[in-house]
Write a structure and sequence with these properties.
single chain; 529 residues; alpha/beta; 7-stranded mixed β-sheet; globular
């Protein structure tokens, strides 16, 4: 066993020392990752790279290092921590147009970039795509692959069974007339403000907000209240229930004072159930303004802004915004914020915020755009005649794809019985009138995770691969991101006459506030059998 005495170590020595120190295999690539992303400092020595031994020790004793070790204990030593992208801030993983609209189940753009760009490292020993190639995403979702392909100078074709998903993806990658969009947002924003200018619900909400601000400061001071609740110095639920009653009395007093009708008294539609009457009127008003816009692409962008706005204005608690439970139409104790909160009664501030945010994101992406083609087809990847559909929708991209074929696939198929991809945007389908095709979803939440559901899933994904193969180049590369806890992908590969040539196992960090546990997914690399 080697003995390490120097304070400074070479890359190889650092990997050997770390392996001994943590009793796990640490590669030179792992050490390089820590240096490149600032987890440990690098020390120059006549141009060579040296590692400070104490800095390495500090890392593995600290939060990030201990989390890496703990997760490898739970998920296996083959976990490729370099693919965790833990060094990135949220603003980087949601950069420019990637956060034009919320979407459950999307991967971060850096993961796509890792496999589509031309770099190599210890794990990715060869590059698979080059500038000018065509990449396909048959489960396009919100268009992450399309956007990153554009940044990297690749053409890209997406397919999604959800009409709304296809709209999101195509809005992200289409060129925007910034002046026209800015004028349209300003015009509609002013019209909306004029529409609600004399509405009593604005004065009602201001008076209620002022009352809550004072009340919460007195009875739910931050952070003192949360500290007392965590230490069990007070019974949080009992204490909150008492104050909920006091605030509710004030709330009802203000509703009567301003003579407001808050509920729509209809629950047969999503918009009827999950929006207060005051907000519903604003939604309908803005939608009518959008219908009058002449520039078709500007109209599509405004549609996405409105959808993003109304998603944030649903009558629910802050804690249940991602997964709805029951409509909330009064003040309530918010466990997330540790105080009494209220639902929204107007969407004006959110609409204005998202208009400005969207313009900024398009401007940021415009500086990175390449002169390449991307388009998401709305259809079923199991049987869609891809080139025929593309010829009708985007002839320029069709010409390129027909000439050089599709180089490969990078996609994240749906998981078995995990997400309802239509229902997550039910408000948009309800308002805009898109046709829903829930029955065509692979891995539908409604089918759950039964043995039959798993069998149907295998058949569905294999059907997609077999259909897409007809349009791929001979020596194609397929990358599929999945959490294959049921070991279904070997069966899928077999049915698609493909072989899994490599697996990249990556930790998935910071998924939701409620779920911080160790979790991984695999990027399957498949080729022709």
């Amino acid at each position: 066993m080697p003995t390490f005495t120097p304070d400074l170590l070479t890359l190889k020595e650092a990997a050997e020392f770390a392996s001994e120190y943590v009793s796990k295999n640490v590669t030179t690539s792992n050490i390089s990752y820590l240096v490149n992303y600032g987890r440990i400092p690098k020390v120059g020595n006549n141009g060579g790279l040296l590692i400070d031994k104490q800095a390495l020790i500090n890392y593995y004793q600290g939060y990030y290092g201990s989390r890496e070790l703990n997760w490898k204990d739970q998920l296996g030593s083959d976990l490729n921590w370099a693919l965790s992208f833990e060094h990135l801030k949220e603003a980087e993983t949601t950069k420019h147009v990637h956060r034009l609209h919320p979407y459950k189940g999307k991967y971060i753009p850096q993961l796509v970039e890792y496999f589509l760009d031309n770099h190599t490292d210890e794990f990715k020993t060869q590059s698979f795509f080059k500038k000018g190639d065509v990449v396909l995403d048959p489960f396009c979702g919100s268009g992450t692959t399309l956007v990153q392909a554009n940044e990297l100078g690749l053409h890209a074709i997406g397919i999604d069974v959800s009409a709304f998903n296809a709209l999101i993806g195509n809005v992200k990658v289409s060129a925007v007339d910034m002046n026209n969009l800015a004028e349209a947002t300003q015009k509609i924003t002013q019209a909306l403000k004029n529409f609600v200018a004399n509405s009593p619900h604005l004065a009602f909400e201001k008076e209620l907000a002022d009352f809550l601000n004072d009340y919460d400061k007195k009875y739910f001071p931050s952070p003192e209240f949360k500290i007392r609740a965590r230490s069990k110095a007070i019974d949080e639920l009992q204490y909150a229930a008492q104050h909920e009653k006091v605030v509710l009395a004030k709330f009802n007093e203000l509703v009567a004072k301003y003579q407001l009708q808050l509920t729509q008294n209809q629950e047969d539609t999503f918009l009827g159930k999950w929006y207060l009457q005051t907000i519903r009127k604003e939604i309908d008003f803005v939608f009518e303004q959008i219908k009058a816009i002449q520039n078709q692409h500007t109209k599509k962008v405004l549609t996405i802004i409105l959808s993003r706005t109304i998603r944030s204005c649903r009558a629910t608690t802050h804690a249940d915004l991602a997964t709805l439970v029951e409509p909330v139409t009064t003040t309530y104790y918010c466990a997330k914020h540790g105080k009494i909160c209220k639902p929204l009664f107007s969407m004006v501030s959110w609409w204005e915020r998202y208009c400005k945010d969207t313009l900024q994101r398009f401007a940021e992406f415009a500086a990175l755009r390449t002169p390449t083609f991307q388009y998401c087809l709305n259809g079923n990847s199991e049987n869609l005649a891809i080139f025929a559909a593309l010829e009708k929708k985007y002839p320029a991209l069709w010409e390129v794809a027909k000439e050089q074929k599709i180089r490969g696939i990078f996609s994240s198929p749906p998981y078995v019985g995990l997400i309802d991809y239509h229902e997550q945007h039910a408000y948009a389908y309800d308002l805009f009138g898109f046709e829903r095709k829930d029955e065509q979803e692979i891995g539908s939440l409604q089918k759950k995770q039964t043995k039959q559901a798993q069998k149907d899933y295998v058949n569905g994904i294999a059907n997609v691969l077999n259909n897409c193969k007809k349009y791929l180049a001979t020596d194609y590369d397929v990358f599929l991101v999945a959490n294959d806890k049921n070991n279904l992908y070997p069966q899928i590969a077999e049915q698609a006459a493909m072989q899994i040539v490599k697996q990249y196992k990556r930790p998935v960090l910071n998924r939701t506030e409620k779920d911080k546990g160790a979790y991984s997914e695999i990027i399957f690399h498949l080729k022709q059998k």
